[in-house]
Specification:
single chain, alpha+beta, 6 helices, 15% strand, globular, disordered N terminus
Amino acid sequence: MSSKIAQAVIGLFAALALTGAAQASSLKACAVPPSVIPAPAEVPPADQVHTDVPTAAYLLALFWSPESCRAGIPESDKTIQCRNNDFGFTVHGLWPNGPDKVHPRYCKPSPPISAATVLANLCMTPSPWLLQHEWQAHGTCQWDTPEAYFKKARQVRERLNVPDLKPGPNGTMTAGQVRAAFLKRNRGMTADGLNVRVNKDNRLTEVWVCMDLDFKLAACRGGNGTPDPVTIRVTPRR
């Protein structure tokens, strides 16, 4: 085999390896680095540790990534999320919710998750720091390992047909239009099962998809956020 052919084969296997890592989340492939450094273990804030709150429901929190990057929120990874990729909605986290306003959080200590687990989930949640935080703050209250937690998050996310959002020329949509984009693509989903979240500048930040204890779509227990008629600003994708 000539050196040029050998180099081409090596390059092909490297590309396949990168694609495999990107697709390990079973979501759309994205550009991921060949290696990552996991985030350090988080020191839980004492007032957020709730180990004895029962789980009454679940929700999947979806970040609107263009706004995360525009605002430079700490949860976003500037390179992976905001420079090397152009995401729409990404998974903030899968959250067990309590019966009232206090939810299970930081149920047990955990070391940093492995680099392999981080890489396998970067196309779903493109931030090593956020992956560590979500596992510690939410995953430890229901799952034995971070791998099991992120596997469930992927399964829940893959069952959804998450829309892309295309705001008008003025960069706005109504909250109802955001909900309608989800309802159009997901049979059985209802408007009361979506919580549309905005920041203090009335910019879309997240959509929360609410579920019952069997991970079936359900009405949100904590309200639905921004009412349908309200016009909100939606940061467009690049």
